[in-house]
Amino acid sequence: MRVLLAIFISFLGVLLGMVLAGIGGLSAKTIYFFDQTDSSEKQKIEAYWDKTALGFSEVSEIINNQKCNSSAGYYKACLAALSQSALLLQKQVDLQSGRLVDVVESDYLVEKNEKDLMSLYAENLTSRLDFEKELQELIQGAKKDELKSSFYGRMINAFLSVYADPHTYVLPLNFYSNVGSKMDRSKFFVGISYEKLQGDFYIRRVSKNSDAELAGIRVGDKVLSVDSIDLKGLSYSEFSDLMTNEEKTGFVFVVQRGEQTLNLKLQRTYRQLNHVQYSLIKSNKNYAYVNFTKFGSGACLEIARAIQTAREEKVGGMILDLRDNAGGQMEQAACIAGLFLGKNKKAYYVEYFSPEQPNEVALTSEEQLYDGPLVVLINSSSASSSELLAGALQEYGRALIVGERSFGKGTFQEPESWKLNPKVTLYKTQGFYLLPSRNSTQLRGVVPDVVIEDNEHARREENLYLNPLKAEENLYAGLAEREKVRAYSYPACDSVGTLKGTSNSEDSYLATAVQHLGCVQPWSSSLAEQKAHSIN
């Protein structure tokens, strides 16, 4: 149970710790769940922080001139805390003088990720900072309602992300157990995720049966305005605030689609969309499409229900879509793997940094429910348990993996009491989780069998953070062997299947998955034994 808890917390390192650190420019893909949290949920999060009474006294214990100037690493961590906290209050550290100044052009620094932001300061900041003076100035200039415990929590997390690693962070006591395991989204969620490229917002995903799909919003649409508000120059958080306004019953989107400019009316229906959604794709055969965006409590049961529906409809294949899935409870990943692999197969390993802590292996826990052709979709925001599930299915030869190389988050965290505040918990990185072949996904991610190139700048572990952890070389040593262990050879599928009857027909990933499903064979017991023997 301790390991399951630890690895569930690693999911929060992707979704919670990084968001609460106040890091700009993480992309709506990476912070998909919390970037679209409605105002009532945000108030709940703030309430958890308020109960901690976290304040400047704890921050000053960590960030002061003596400690900040004690080493180059500590200095960078203090600079990260100051610069990112300043951005939350519409201030920024001037690149030349080091003094706090008003943000003039929000896109200049606000949308930078941690690595890019810190690189800018490293290259341009010539003066040493008086951290105590700048912090006092920042706090004195802030409005009273801005200086909440959550603000100081973000400041500390920005520090820890650089000083320790990107997934070591603090959270209010009991926050993850009460908030992080929900499988239903907010009733105010309209069904879109988005990304920002060169100052413009584009629709990245449209959820099936959502208000956005009903309104005719499509993947790839460039959003020009919402309710006559020009989106040019808006930050992610400002766009999020606009979309999660509970007082709005609908929105008018103006989008550019190719040469067309369209006015689309979106009406809220206040339906709670589940993180597991099933639909039928009609091609030359009927295929099951399971969109899965979070490994929350009960996810395995939801996937099992989707498989049962697919069996009743006698589908010719299945697509499991893990794009933008940042992970979750790892026992759910082992359970879901069993639905496709059968019981007592190696799902993943847990390897601790400490030699005194015994390493562990997690086995699949469910009987196989589906042995038909399977394609798994991943992208650069498929992280944590998504990577382990996709990687395990790939290594056993159970599924064809289609998409981008995944995020590369292969660490886990465990909670411990935080000495500066008993109402705050420190989640500290304690080790790596490994694929059945004992290879690490950390930084390397999962490489698809069929690679789809994306025009965007990939937002992965290695690209976002200044000091991402790297696994020992021996945990990458088997990468060449993995090619021999994983899926059998698939023939080319140039004209098998055409995607029909879906508003997501512009989705090149989904179209490619359908195209290749005709070449994927049902999983045989002899292949299972062969792959299991190779992995063992």
Task: Please provide a written account of the structure.
Helix 1 (2-20) packs across helix 11. By secondary structure, the chain is α+β, with helices and mostly antiparallel strands. Strands 4, 5, 6, 7, 8 and 9 form a 6-stranded antiparallel β-sheet that branches. It has helices at residues 2-20, 27-30, 32-35, 39-52, 56-62, 65-68, 72-88, 106-109, 114-124, 131-141, 149-163, 175-179, 211-215, 236-243, 299-312, 330-341, 385-395, 461-464, 479-485, 508-517, 525-535, and strands at residues 91-93, 100-102, 169-172, 192-197, 200-206, 222-226, 229-230, 250-257, 260-267, 276-282, 286-292, 317-321, 346-352, 360-363, 374-378, 400-403, 411-417, 424-434, 450-451. Mean pLDDT is 82; it is low at 1-36, 483-492 and 494-505. A hairpin with a 6-residue loop joins strand 17 and strand 18.
